[in-house]
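Thread: quick sanity check before group meeting

JM: Hey all, I'm pulling together slides for Thursday and realized we never actually wrote out the predicted structure for the chain we discussed last week. Dropping the sequence here so it's in one place. If anyone has concerns about the input, flag it before I start.
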Amino acid sequence: MRLLADDLRAYDAAVALLAVHGAIALNDAILIALTRRRSSSEAHDRAVRELERTCKQMRVVNKSGIHHLGWLIANKTAISYADKRFGRADETLAHAERFSTWAYNNFKEVLRVQADT
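JM (edit): ok, ran it. Output follows.
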């Protein structure tokens, strides 16, 4: 995604779609690690509610990541299926990066980055 983002004009739709799917996968990883299950619904907005519930149980104070994930999921249909080109790839990328940063700051005990990859 970051390589494509270097030429955002040419690959804006792909970057936006990868950003959304990456955030959904990261959210699944958090939910699986903490609750032993991921959102089983195709309605991804449920995943936002499940993350919110998990944050409450884990006493996560900073909930800004929930907002970023919610924005990404709310725009998923427009990014994936709209008849006209989605022109907000830069904003989508920013929300995905903010969600990722938030996730790794708040769930570092379950989200481990492997340095040797």
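AS: nice. Residues 35 and 54 are 8 Å apart (CA to CA). Helices lie at 2-5, 8-35, 45-58, 64-74, 76-81, 89-106.
JM: adding both to the slides.
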